[in-house]
Amino acid sequence: MSSNAGIGPSEREPEAAVESASQSRLGAWLDHHLYSLVASLGRLLRKPWATLLTIGVMAVALALPLGLWASLNNVERFAGDVQRSRQISVFLKPEVKLDRARALADELRARPEVGGVELRTPEQGLADLREKSGLGESLSAIEGNPLPSLLVVTPKGDELILAQSLGELAEADVVQHDAGWRQRLDGWLRFGSRLAWVLAVMLGLGALLVVGNTVRLDIQSRREEIGVLQLLGATDGFIRRPFLYLGACYGLAAGTVALALLTAADHTLREPLTALAASYGSHFELQGFDLLQAAQILAGSAALGWLGAGLVTGHYLRQSRAGQG
Q1: Where do the FtsX extracellular domain residues begin and end (predicted)?
Q2: Sign of torsion, CA 258 263 265 266?
Q3: Is the pLDDT of residue 6 over 50?
Q4: Which of 68, 119, 230, 308 is deepest in the core (most CB within 10 A)?
Q5: What does the pLDDT average to over 264-284?
């Protein structure tokens, strides 16, 4: 038998009333959110030139650090694979036989500080030289093969220490490890990354101030309306909500324009840069933002506008409440 069998209609009415009131409050909350969003879009459209100016300033402020960040990512890709740049070339002495070179490669692979070893025989080296140098006929005139065996070692840890130990091998003739350029490039990339963050903070603060000042002007024009709502008992959240959506709309539109500017710059530079890279035998192409990164940028710009509007509106409401008190 159901436990609700003894409950009469009069006893179930309060529960239904509470549930109905809860649904009514939720519906009113959602309706006001939707109204705030639509009203914010309407206010943007009613002032097109002022809106475009604000969005344009914010878009440039967002595009500069984003463009620098994208450029750094492309420079890092153009520099090549990090593991490849760390490789150490060990040229063995001419008298070292191929069997001994293979055994030495196996010995090096067993070391914990070695990530991998590739053996290139003199025949492979000569074939590569003929293919890449364009001196095939001249090299064919040379009797024998003057090239030694080559071990290409990829380190796991510090390549400088490994390069020193490889130079002490009895079979090693020349150890080639030009890590200076990579260290300098890494230094420049670290500096560029730090610069991008500094610019992002400074220009993001500028975008925050632009949104805040725009929302402040909108608040001043609606001061009487806000005062009436406060006298009627409206909460700060109720009053603040339309301005928050206004700031978020500014931020979202600015992020969209910033992405459009960077995409246009990417298409403008891609063809000549690809042709320049091809002249050096590289297949490098500029890489822009993928869908996930673009979504993150749009979400971040909208949050930036929301934050700017929230700070200004909260400050005004606190002052207003203090003045009434």
Answers
A1: 87-159
A2: positive
A3: no
A4: 308
A5: 75
Q: Among all chains, which residue has been given the structure tokens 């992002």?
A: 200
Examine the pLDDT at 199 and tell me if it is beyond 60.
Answer: yes
Q: What is the pLDDT of residue 30?
A: 75
Q: Which residue has the tokens 């991998």?
A: 116
| 113 found inside a domain | yes
Number of domains in the chain: 2
Domain hosting 259: range is: 34-80+184-324
- Contact predicate 66/271, CB 8 Å: no
Q: Let me know whether 75 and 212 are in one domain.
A: yes
pLDDT tens by residue, 58-110? 898 888 888 888 887 777 666 554 445 567 888 888 888 888 888 888 888 88
Nearest-angstrom CA–CA distance, 16 and 256: 46
pLDDT at 256: 94
> 139-168, pLDDT tens digit by residue?
555 555 667 888 888 887 667 777 788 888
Burial class (CB in 10 A: 0-12, 13-18, 19+), 258: buried
What DSSP element (H or E) covers 90? Answer: strand 88-92
The answer to whether the CB of 303 falls within 8 A of the CB of 251 is yes
Q: How far apart are CA 63 and CA 258, in angstroms?
A: 5
Tell me if 173 sits within 8 A of 91, measured CB to CB.
Answer: yes
d(CA 45, CA 37): 13
pLDDT number for residue 167: 83
Q: What is the pTM of this model?
A: 0.60
Note the Cα 155 to chain centre separation in Å: 29
112 and 222 fall within a common domain: no
Q: Are 153 and 101 in contact (CB under 8 A)?
A: no
User: Tell me, what CATH number does 128's domain have?
Assistant: 3.30.70.3040
